Amino acid sequence: MEDLVFAANIRAALAMLRERRVPAVPWVDGENLPWDELAFSQRMLREHLDQTHAAASRPLDEILIHVDGLERELKLSYGSRILDVTCGPGLYCHELARRGYRVTGVDFAPAAIGYAREKAIEEGLNCIFVQQDVRQMDFNEGFEAAILLYGQLNVFTKDDAAGLLRRVAMALLPSGRFIAEVHNIEYIDKEQYTDWQVSESGLFGDYPQLCLHEQFWSEEKQAALDRYYVLHMGTGEMQEYAVCEQGYTLDGYRALLAQAGLRLNRVDGGWDGHPASEADEWFLLYAEKTAA
C-alpha cells in the first residue's frame, strides 16, 4: 500500500512539472514565500540567525556597520521613535534600541517576531513587535523615522509597494525621514536557467528532498521569478513555491515614493563601509515625508 501511495504521489509530481508554464510569469505563476506559516518561519529563523551567510539576514558585524550609518543619516535625538518595516527577527531593532531609540518592528513571520520579542524582553530593550502583513499595518502614532531594508520593497507588486509606502508615510511625523535599501536593477539576474539540488533537509522542509529551481525574467514586467519544486524523497509528495523580485529604475523609485508623499532627497550605492562584495547590488534611498 505504501508503495502504491508513493507511486501515485510521484505521478502527481511529474504531472505538476509537465503542466507548469514555461516561461513562468512573475506575480502570476507564484508571488511570495509562505512567511506566515509557523513551520516555514521556524526554518527561516534558523537562516536569519546563521552567522555563516547573508541569505536571510546580514551577519551581526555588518548590521553594526549599517546601524552606524542609520544613526549618521537619521540624526535623531535620544528616545526618538523608529519604525522597522519587515523587521524579521529584530536584529536592527535590537541594536537601535540598545542605542536609546524606541523601536517598533513589523513582520509577517510568527517565529521571527517571537524571537524578536523574547530577545527584547531578555535585554530589557524598548521595542514593540507586531506580527502583521505590512501591507495592512496602520499606526496612528507618529514616528520620527522609518526603515525598510534588504530589498524587501522589491518583493511586492508595484501596486502593493505603492500602498505599503503610503502606509509608511502615514506613520511618519511631518518631515519624518525614511531610508529604504532596494535592489539595483542592473544587478538583478535576468538569465533563465534551471538547477537542482539533493539534501537531507532544507528551508522548505526537514526531510530528504530534491529541490528543482527555475529562474525567469519578464522584460515586460521588469521582474524576476524564482520557482521551486520540492520533492519529498520519502513520500514522493511535491510542493511548489515561488518568490518574485520587482525591478525599478531610479526614476521608478522616485515616482513610487512621490506617489506616497515621500520626497527622495539622495541616493547612495550601497552602505558606506559595507564589507560585503555585493554592496553595488543595492541602492539606499533617503527620503522624507512631504507636506500633505
Q: What keywords describe this structure?
A:
292 residues; alpha/beta; Rossmann fold; 2 domains; 7-stranded mixed sheet; 4-stranded antiparallel sheet; 29% strand; globular
Helix content: 25-40%
Output the CATH homologous superfamily of the largest domain.
Vaccinia Virus protein VP39
Give the strand order, joined by hyphens, for the main sheet: 3-2-1-4-5-11-10
Which CATH top level class of the largest domain fits? Answer: Alpha Beta
What is the third-level CATH name, the topology of the largest domain? Rossmann fold
Tally of separate domains: 2
Main β-sheet, in a few words?
7 strands, mixed
Mean pLDDT: 93
- What is the alpha-carbon Rg in Å? 20 Å
* Helix-strand string: HHHEHEHEEHEEEEEHEE
Q: Judging by the overall fold, what is the CATH architecture of the largest domain? A: 3-Layer(aba) Sandwich
Structural class: alpha/beta
Number of strands: 11
3D structure, described in words:
31% of the residues lie in helices and 29% in strands. The chain is an alpha/beta fold. It folds into two domains: 2-30 and 189-246, no CATH class; 39-184 and 248-289, Rossmann fold. The strands form two sheets. It has a seven-stranded mixed sheet, sandwiched between helices. Helix 2 (38-49) crosses helix 5 (110-123) and helix 3 crosses helix 4 (91-98). The radius of gyration is 20 Å and the shape is globular. The mean pLDDT is 93.
